[in-house]
Amino acid sequence: MHRTLDVNGIKLHIAEQGQGPLVILCHGWPELSYSWKRQLPALAAAGYHAVAPDMRGYGETSAPEDISAYTLLHMVGDIVGLVAALAESRAVIVGHDWGANVAWAAAQLRPDLFPAAITMSVPFRRRGPVRPSDALRQAGQNNFYWLYFQKPGVAEAEFERDVPSTFRRLGAGRGGSLFVPEGHGFLDSFAEPERLPDWLSAEDIAVYADTYRRTGFRGGLNWYRNIDRNWELLAPWQDAAIRQPVLFIAGENDGVVKAPASAAALAQMSETVPGLKRKILLKDAGHWIQRERPDEVNAAMVEFLREIRV
After folding, report:
1. With contact defined as beta carbons under 8 Å apart, do 94 and 24 qualify?
2. Is the pLDDT of residue 284 over 90?
């Protein structure tokens, strides 16, 4: 079932299945609520009300013009408002990629509302001593993709030039790097796949391509354009520990997890996330973990949810 709700000053489109305790699934970049199509029925069958929104700036959900309207405080506010709009008082929050950042922040800011979290692909990172963009430059990583995404219009033009190709290359392209050399684009290191993997169909590509041809990529890219603003806004929660039960899932071959900063954060999570119950790294799996390995992801999620008895 699909519907659109008035939430936190925007129109929030959701896909949902099932009845029972509320589980909210937050997608990442560049995805949609559609990315959870294999999780919604599995969670519903296990006795949960599974809800996947098109996040702010994506799909059928509102995409404000102002870049500053895409901070983590806005994203957490959207999910807080969604819980209220569904007439619930608590929810387990699930997030993949940027959605994991939303889940981490929600767990920090509103432990009363989010008694547990499941995060995928992006480990928890402590707030650093300097702005993220400055930290990258100080580390000599001036061509990291976060910085390439900062100037409005540049990455949009690249990704919108051939939208189906963008999704084929990001989803299944060979190679791939998180660094963008001067004079190149982000996609240049992602070769067109000779064939799509079993988990990514031509129909899937068409769904993403049809949506992004209409919406463009601006909304999701604006999330990246707030990395420094997020650092400033989240200062009051610098030492807020995540003590709720947490499950972390990632693919061993995920380029995000293998990046030096993420690898260090992953190794430290037992210390930085006191509530961490389990950390699962799936062999021969990449970044799009819930789509690549749905059966294993679903089984781990349901087992965790039953353990914590939400």
Report:
1. yes
2. yes
What pLDDT is stored for residue 15 in this prediction? Answer: 98
Residue 247's DSSP bridge partners are: 118, 278
Share of residues in the chain with pLDDT > 90 (%): 90
- Per-residue pLDDT of 109-120, as tens digits, reads 999 999 999 999
- Model pTM greater than 0.90? yes
Q: 234-240: long-range contacts (C-beta < 8 A, 24 or more apart)?
A: 234/72, 234/73, 234/105, 234/108, 234/127, 235/127, 237/108, 237/109, 237/127, 238/127, 240/108, 240/109
> From CA 121, how far away is CA 286, in angstroms rounded?
9
* Direct distance between the N- and C-terminal alpha carbons of the chain, in angstroms, rounded to an integer: 23
97 as an active site residue: the answer is: yes
Q: Average the pLDDT over 227-237 and give the result.
A: 97
* Residue whose tokens read 């996330």: 273
β-bridge partners, 24: 51, 93
Joined together, the tokens standing for residue 97 give 């990629």
What domains sit in the chain, N to C, each tagged with a CATH number?
2-308 (3.40.50.1820)
**Residues in contact with 287: Cβ distance below 8 Å, sequence separation at least 6, in sequence order:** 97, 121, 251, 254, 255, 256
Q: What is the pLDDT of residue 46?
A: 98
Nearest partner of 127 among 200, 230, 11, judged by Cα:
230
Written as one letter, the residue type at 244 is: Q
Q: Indicate which residue of 54, 78, 96, 97 is catalytic.
A: 97
